[in-house]
Specification:
The complex is a heterodimer. By secondary structure, chain A is of the alpha/beta class. Helix content of chain A is about 40%, strand content about 10%. Chain A has one domain: Rossmann fold (3-Layer(aba) Sandwich). In chain A, helix 5 packs parallel to helix 6. Chain A is globular, with a radius of gyration of 17 Å. The mean pLDDT of chain A is about 95. In chain B, about 40% of the residues lie in helices and about 20% in strands. In chain B, the strands form 3 sheets. In chain B, strands 3-2-4-5-7-6-12 form a 7-stranded mixed sheet, sandwiched between helices. A 5-stranded mixed sheet of chain B has the order 9-11-10-13-14, with helices on both faces. Chain B folds into 2 domains: about 170 residues, 3-Layer(aba) Sandwich (Rossmann fold); about 130 residues, Rossmann fold, CATH 3.40.50. In chain B, helix 1 runs parallel beside helix 8 and helix 10 packs across helix 11. Classes of the chains: A alpha/beta, B alpha/beta.
Chain lengths: ~280, ~325
């Protein structure tokens, strides 16, 4: 279903508020992954506030759609989105990475309802997504499975094992979104270990592929809708994104892969995000 | 032990038991990584093709896919050779199965030196150790076909990750229909009084032979089948140590970190008695015929007899 401008604006504002909470949370914890959380904020917003079926009061509801954050280091965007979706109180976000917190450094399904599978070791989430998608097919259930992978993560060989499995078993209930932000810890992905052409790779593995601007809410929404219409093959949506998206403090800066904003950076970023409200 | 013995490979027993289980429960699914004819998941695949998933030669993906099937409410049995299941995919087992505590059953075949001719690259001698160290994991090594069939039933009932080790070759059937396997419970064949042999897998049959050899020399050796390595039946280990005053462990696996390691941990903390560990002595395997390899690596009944005498000598010092 196409969304009107008003609904798109609502989603954009939700993403803006999620970014604010991510930054406050990361400033508070003093440790965690800023860049890759901000780059995926629009993607997770579209998933949780437009596409996914879920019930925060019943996280294991059998009719839910499944979401896997394969790039588990972007846990802050997942926790914040889950909080906005009602899975946990927003006040709990400040416990990130603290002893006894449900908000582990990387998502842990043992602790936090709404997290389908623990992730953090890159390259493993897509195989799990394939398994869930197979189980839904066996049950002839309409539930869909979504996984967000990083572009650097595509360097893991297991991703391509899983890509073969998904195509071989015709998992058209599976949709991958690649957060293609171009940076990894050691520098530009192209310099560390090139993964382009990403879209061609998925296509050659038998996937239906879309290439979109991962910060354009209308494009993300349209891509998610289109993925549902594809029959007989899984969908990969390659989302062109900017690492650290939301503030000039972090955008395109590799050092913010695993660093958190200090007080000045937080203040600057919050001002930018507050000003973005009327756009 | 004196009756003429029927022989069956534990992998064959697994294949039959899995197919039978699939008939009883439609939430049971199976995965393999291009070795279904060898691991014997092929029997399940033939009976229930829609519930069998061959992922090709991709063990890491197989473990993750199994994890996803478990999330989707299935009971996945994932099989390949032990060396690939536990080595190639160790981190997938740790991160995607044990860390989230998912209900995945890994049943690996072709463990130990009795793989034979394929050689050291294919002879898994470290799998018990590397599975045992992961939290949430249960580790089981059945001794014969009867026990294997019961283990398959038991792990399907149990909720949580399990590793089950099977072998390639036909081994003597030790148990009758009245045998009852229970996860975490050792089976005491003979209590003994001079030295207890605590064995696992195909070494249980060797231990029973060694007991006969020793009996003819007037030595009363106990024989315990420790089919569950984790959680280890520490009570049975301590009772055997207190009763016999000396222990020999026997496994077709490295003496580091496997049954010998697990028993040594219990003895050192709770019942220090002389211990001799029979197994592979920090080595890789090599090509050869299975019986020849058993003798080559000191895993025969005769080697066990000698080790029992060595343990008794230590005790009497």
């Amino acid at each position: 279903m196409a969304l009107n401008a008003e609904k798109i604006a609502e989603l954009k504002d939700r993403a803006r508020r999620i970014r604010i909470d991510i930054l406050k949370m990361l400033h508070g914890s003093g440790s965690g992954h800023t860049g890759g959380s901000l780059s995926a904020a629009d993607i997770l917003t579209a998933l949780y506030f437009f596409k996914l079926k879920y019930d925060p009061k019943n996280p294991t509801w059998k009719d839910r759609d499944y979401f896997i954050l394969s790039k588990g280091h972007a846990a802050p965007v997942l926790y914040t989105t889950l909080a906005h979706a009602g899975f946990l109180p927003t006040s709990e976000l400040c416990t990130l990475r603290k002893l006894g917190s449900r908000l582990q450094g990387h998502p842990d399904s043992k602790y936090l309802p709404g997290v389908e599978i623990s992730t953090g070791s890159l390259g493993q989430g897509l195989s799990v997504a394939c398994g869930i998608a197979l189980s839904q097919k066996l049950d002839k259930a309409p539930n869909r499975v979504y996984a967000v992978l990083g572009d650097g993560e595509l360097q893991e060989g297991q991703v391509w094992e899983a890509a073969m499995t998904a195509a071989h078993y015709k998992l058209d209930n599976l949709c991958v979104l690649v957060d293609n932000n171009g940076l990894q810890i050691d520098g530009p992905v192209a310099k560390v270990m090139g993964v382009e052409p990403i879209a061609d790779k998925w296509r050659s593995f038998g996937w239906d592929v879309q290439d979109i601007d991962g910060h354009d809410m209308a494009q993300i929404v349209a891509a998610l809708d289109k993925a549902e219409t594809v029959k007989g093959k899984p969908t990969a949506v390659v989302c062109r994104t900017v690492k650290g998206k939301g503030s000039k403090c972090f955008e395109g800066k590799v050092e913010f892969h695993g660093a958190t904003p200090n007080a000045d950076e937080l203040a600057t970023a919050l001002k930018e995000l507050d000003e973005a409200v009327c756009k | 032990m004196s009756q003429p013995q029927q022989k069956i490979a534990t992998r064959d027993a697994y294949g039959d038991a899995l197919a039978a289980l699939g008939k009883k429960r439609n939430d049971v699914v199976a995965l393999d990584a291009d070795l279904s004819g060898s691991t014997k998941t092929s029997k399940f695949a033939k009976a229930f093709p829609e519930r069998f998933f061959n992922v090709g030669i991709a063990e890491q993906d197989m473990m993750g896919t199994a994890a996803g099937l478990a999330i989707g409410g299935k009971i996945p049995f994932a099989s390949t050779f032990a060396v690939f299941a536990t080595g190639r995919a160790w981190e997938q087992i740790r991160q995607s199965i044990c860390y989230p505590n998912l209900n995945v059953k890994i049943v690996a075949s072709h463990a130990g030196v009795t793989v034979g001719e394929d050689g050291g690259s294919h002879q898994s001698l470290e799998d018990i150790a590397v599975m045992r160290v992961i939290p949430h994991m249960t580790v089981i090594v059945p001794a014969d076909g009867v026990e294997t069939a019961q283990v398959v039933e038991a792990v399907a009932e149990y909720k949580g990750p399990c590793y089950v080790r099977t072998g390639r070759n036909k081994v003597p059937v030790l148990y009758g229909a009245d045998y009852r396997f229970k996860i975490g419970k050792a089976h005491v064949h003979h209590e003994g009084k001079d030295c207890a042999i605590i064995a696992t897998g195909i070494m249980v049959a060797e231990a029973l032979k060694a007991r006969d050899l020793l009996a003819s020399e007037g030595i009363d050796a106990g024989v315990i089948n420790m089919s569950t390595i984790k959680p280890l039946d520490a009570e049975a280990v301590i009772a055997a140590a207190k009763r016999c005053g000396a222990v020999v462990t026997a496994e077709e696996h490295s003496i580091i970190g496997g049954l010998g390691g697990a028993v040594a941990e219990v003895l050192a903390e709770s019942a220090p008695v002389p211990l001799v560990r029979v197994g592979i002595k920090d080595q890789f395997g090599t090509s050869g015929d299975p019986d020849g390899l058993m003798a080559h690596y000191g895993l025969s009944a005769g080697n066990l007899r000698d080790s029992v005498k060595e343990a008794i000598k230590k005790k009497n010092k």
